[in-house]
Amino acid sequence: MKVLTVYYSRTGITAEVARALHAALGGELEEIKDTRNRAGIINYLYAGMEAALKKAAKIEPARHDPGAYDLVIIGTPVWSHNISTPVRAYLEQNKAKFKACAFFATCASSGAVKTLGDMENLSGVKGKALLDINKKEYRSGAFRKKAEQFARELLS
Ligand SMILES: Cc1cc2nc3c(=O)[nH]c(=O)nc-3n(C[C@H](O)[C@H](O)[C@H](O)COP(=O)(O)O)c2cc1C
To answer: Considering the entire predicted model, what is its pTM?
Structure first.
């Protein structure tokens, strides 16, 4: 099975979950690159507002063609209880190409389950597995067990 794990990460949390999944599942790993500077409070507020308005960011072209993979795993941080704007852009641009998907979302405390449903709706693909990680699980390392379970579901 050819697997592509794709993620956007502003502060490294979604990236670390993506790396754990990539280690468990193999295949290729791709970071979605935003063209906007997201550092600082003004950009934080702007990002939250745009996510709530369901805007798509301007992203750099993808390196891998998702249509060439049996399974595409896509991860986003939760922004204002929504898909982050770079991942929204990726889903909008590539939704016609997905064969099968699984989704993961990281958050501080809430909004991940709703966001995973939004990812399924936007891509038009029901996730083969869904993974939500909050800050507590990330900090304690408990996210690794959840990521392993998610990977096992995908391999079964
Ligand atoms: C603009 C913005 C909005 C956010 N909104 C939420 C939210 O609605 N709920 C939540 O639990 N966390 C929220 N967060 C926190 C992130 O989802 C969380 O820290 C995530 O794990 C960060 O992932 P990253 O390090 O990959 O960027 C928000 C973060 C940003 C930057």
So the answer is: 0.98
